[in-house]
């Protein structure tokens, strides 16, 4: 069954040859994009949808979320808005609530948030563990995430749980815990920050993950200067996320990591920066230096309780100095690069995975239609729910 999506006023493809097109059409077939071109030249298809001059772009690829959790941290948010600084210790509150929740409760909460994200145009999600912090709780978090996410990340090294000593806990994460979760995850992440895990502890976990063939990520340079970004680049991590505090050498290092092959994506999390009242990450500086930037929601109950990628994109334009085109690219193709899905891959189960983040033949048919003539409206009309329709893997999931 093929579907012709026609009447596209403005089509953002993220494809270097196709670029941004006017009066375009796209054919979807078998879950993939089969054809892209001018509407006047479109081939026949089994079904036809006319989007009446609206803008069409790839679905958002949200490459940083923490959606396996229970509980609520409204009180912590209120205290922060009243002047309290963010302290990573709040993670422990969510750990306690998550451990006390049933599998069904955790899965239902994840589904609620993933459905909310989908209605907002997010067609691909990375989901982290990290609120279990025992072998059993991290394993069930990974399993629950794997049922819904496009990429699953093990974040056992999120916080040293109450009652554990740091070194013993790092041994557990890099040993028994990693062994248990490895079949269910694509990558391993470490919160490399003062108050969480230091450079040596982070390196230990990341090297153990690499030895198992898993991809790496780092939460780094969120709360202040630190070793996270350097470590991520040195170890060839897919991404370093937060990056609010970067010096010029670190910015250059991230840009240079792409010379001669795949480098480390700098993932900025504007909603988190605002909610924690921290400086906004230097996305403009990173792009000017030639780094690859992703924008993600960091949806979690502590530092960034939003699934709205449109809000993150608008913030990146209005407050971080990105053009709309740059912000849209970072929230689609940038996110795809951060989860290693910007090219065809093989999944954990050995099946082929179509690339994400572009609208071109062979890509997964993930499209969002805006109730607007141009993507510029994402920043011009911030806060307005502009999503008119969404296709995910060729299925019309929001209409
Ligand atoms: O990405 N930085 C570490 N992890 C989360 C915070 C999670 C929390 O406070 O619950 C983050 O911001």
Automatic annotation (TrEMBL):
Keywords: Cytoplasm, Histidine metabolism, Hydrolase, Iron, Metal-binding, Zinc. It is found in: Cytoplasm. Zn(2+) binds at residues 64, 66, 219, 298. Binds 1 zinc or iron ion per subunit. 4-imidazolone-5-propanoate binds at residues 73, 131, 158, 222, 303. Fe(3+) binds at residues 64, 66, 219, 298. Its cofactor is Zn(2+); Fe(3+). Its EC number is 3.5.2.7. Gene3D superfamilies: Metal-dependent hydrolases, Urease, subunit C, domain 1. One of its GO terms (biological process) is L-histidine catabolic process to glutamate and formate. One of its GO terms (cellular component) is cytoplasm. InterPro entries: Amidohydro-rel, HutI, Metal-dep_hydrolase_composite, Metal_Hydrolase. It catalyses: 4-imidazolone-5-propanoate + H2O = N-formimidoyl-L-glutamate. The keyword Mitochondrion does not apply. N-formimidoyl-L-glutamate binds at residues 131, 300, 302. Residues 56-395 form the Amidohydrolase-related domain. One of its GO terms (molecular function) is iron ion binding. It is an enzyme of class 3 (hydrolase). Belongs to the metallo-dependent hydrolases superfamily. HutI family. NCBIfam families: hutI. This is Imidazolonepropionase.
